[in-house]
């Protein structure tokens, strides 16, 4: 129950983090200060100080020059909320962990708690490492560091769910997914890779670059894709490549999820059958959200819904695999 309470906080962190990135709010706080992070600016002097620090960044000087204080306050509160939620998450995880540790209950599968603590602490450091990449040398944070930050959050969420479901003794009755458990794990890996491709696109502001579907800029395969050298720069800087890879791999993930969902309905049993069916349903919704987001040129609302769909698909994939793993 403790870990299942922590999991929604991780989901909230992912979604608020996505909103922080998509609203260009992530660089509004330029210092790592625990005291400032606990309480937002409450006085005019404090707001003036924070705004002055932001005005020294390249993002302000090249992109937001002339921004009003009220506009700055809007983006600042997004970033502050993300950081404050991270601190709350740390408390929600750590205090029960200490209680269970001191009472001798962190045995067996709960030994992974130590790993979760290390990953959570590392996640805070990775977040600051990501922010520092965009303060003075770039207009935005590094897409690679953004992807690593998101990837770590997904790994933490998966571990929380995997251990919690096992600790509850689920499934208690016969439970079969209808397909090989290896295929279920392969889906998890594919969903993770697709999320990383999405993070690279979001980090490079590539979403609005092509607002047509199923073609990309009027072409089935953009002629400008993979035109940069070295080749890996295409994944972080070239919007045509990002759209081509993210969309194509998305079709692969959706097809795999539908296959698993179909077999779960036809041959599955118990809790894994239900979870496997949900995998297929969530994948269909996620594809629809992706298409709508592209056609609307990636507005904030649809982009956030698309990210929430990715998290839902991740949860469904991890849960179905765990329920099939007796």
Characterise this structure.
There is one protein chain. The chain has 326 residues and is mainly α. The protein has helices at residues 2-22, 34-38, 44-54, 58-62, 69-102, 112-132, 143-167, 181-203, 233-237, 239-267, 270-295, 300-323. It contains twelve helices and no strands. Helix 5 runs antiparallel to helix 6 (112-132), helix 10 packs antiparallel against helix 11 (270-295) and helix 11 runs antiparallel to helix 12. The chain is flat, with a radius of gyration of 21 Å.
- What is the count of β-strands? 0
Radius of gyration: 21 Å
How far apart the termini lie comes to 20 Å
Largest sheet: none
Q: SSE string, helix = H, strand = E?
A: HHHHHHHHHHHH
Notable traits:
single chain, 326 residues, mainly alpha, 12 helices, 70% helix
Short structural description:
The chain is an all-alpha fold and 326 residues long. It contains twelve helices and no strands. Helix 7 runs antiparallel to helix 8, helix 8 (181-203) packs antiparallel against helix 10 and helix 11 (270-295) packs antiparallel against helix 12 (300-323).
